[in-house]
Fold this protein.
Amino acid sequence: MNTTQHGQPGTFPNPGPQTPGPGMTDRQATSWAAAAGIAAVGTGVALGELAAGLVSPSLSPVTAVGGAVIDAVPPGVKEWAIALFGTADKVALLGGMGLLIAALAALSGIVELRRGFAGVAIIAVFGVVGLAAVLGRTELTANAVPVPLLAAAVGMVLLRWLVRRLREWRTEAGPPAARLPAGPPPAGPGTAAQPPSRRRFFHALGGTAAVAVVAGLLATTFRGAAAAVSELRSKLVLPAPESPAPPVPAGAEVRLDGVGPLVTPNKDFYRIDTALRVPVVDPAQWTLKVTGLVEKEVSLDFAALLAKPLVERHATIACVSNEVGGDLIGNARWLGWPVRELLALAGPKDGADMVLSRSADGWTAGTPLEVLTDNRDALLAIGMNGEPLPLEHGFPVRLIVPGLYGYVSATKWVTELKVTRFADDVGYWTPRGWSERGPVKTSSRIDVPRDGRSVSAGTVAFGGVAWAQHTGIGRVELRINGGAWQPAELAPGISKDTWYQWKLAVPLTPGQYEVQVRATDLNGVAQVEDRAPVAPSGATGFHTVRVDVKS
Ligand SMILES: Nc1nc2c(c(=O)[nH]1)N[C@H]1C(S)=C(S)[C@@H](COP(=O)(O)O)O[C@H]1N2
Ligand SMILES: [Mo]
């Protein structure tokens, strides 16, 4: 962008025009400034909606602000609105918001023309309101937070640019010619040439408006599909499991503030996938095909899946990219149908040793056939913590396999299971530098105190989680400044497939401490001490925190 020409009023390139310009009245300048404000803010909002549609299908800044308005208005007003608009109340709200946004956008253009940055400040307030609304929506993931900021930034930059173009035009056009009391208006070809800055302003304004329209149309298309599937999801009633989850044992929670929750709420559950746009899969259109080395190909639709005897189980899933001490891991209660029962219907042929699962967006994972047919509860999951799977976590159906990293097992939006051989097929990540097999490595984490924290001398409570899915944790120990390993209090896990919480109270005098944790599985195998990076098969090493104990 051109930063050398500011075109401020008073810096006429050539004062005292020899040929009188066509002139620009204050009213014209104000109208075009208002148009610039609407185009700039419109583009910001449209791009924000588009980004929201791409990143987080269920919510947009506009929807979030609208939702906040609905939550905030007193009940009387709500009833009045429903009485007045009936079922169109939401359309009326969105229409009203649109008009209000347009009015404020026009105002931002007008004040920006009068005084640089005044309009930008109004847009900044827009951004803050949008951000506050987004933060206030509990069902929203952190992914949506940058969206209102992006929208506001785009609006501010465009407004500065358009108003600068407008000022250049006004400067070149000069003040309006003295009004003649009678006679034809002086405007017209030949009378006064339009300055080139006029064309530049209209190109900028038209270009901006065109971007707003295209982004708005794309956003509507994306959101329309996502909104329809979100609606189906929210209306879906999950069947009761034939085999409910075993009860959470008493004492499974150590009840220490800051320790990762025993069951991770859906909105806090880590999300990892290659999907730039969350696949939007209509359950009525969904089918799962079992293909490849099978006696008989099987096809399953969603209604048939719901009618199966479902089981509900807790399982902790982790990403291979989880660093030592990291949070790409979570525990949930999954509702689904055991994959081994589906595979039994198809009848894998001799020689098959892998199932290549494929998602609606073409991602693949290669899972050992054995793990999907042994007695563990590898599930075709439809429910997560009592709800249908969130769109981001694979709605309507995903795989959950206790004991394997997600990249070789946890296919979201799953549509095909191809029974095959490791010799013949590869999952998505394998040719990209990750191991063919991905068993979860036994590991543990110190959640409190956090690394680098100061605590007061006396008894310091340490706590965290440890996991060795499908084997189970037998012991967790702490080591302080490289001393002897001290056993921590290990809470009972929900099952061998979940993480376990642990805690240990340690008396500490003032000073600097380095505290490490080590987990040992139920077979007596301790986690690996040597540090290894996440690639190719998962990080190892002891999680270490430095604690500053103050007197
Ligand atoms: N379709 C699809 N499924 C996928 C992935 C993906 O990129 N696409 N990523 C996998 C990886 S690497 C992990 S760790 C888990 C994460 O599941 P979550 O996002 O529900 O936590 O999903 C797995 N399933
Ligand atoms: Mo992952």
Remarks:
- The radius of gyration is 31 Å.
- Residues 272, 319-321, 405-407 surround molybdenum atom (ligand 2) (CB under 6 Å).
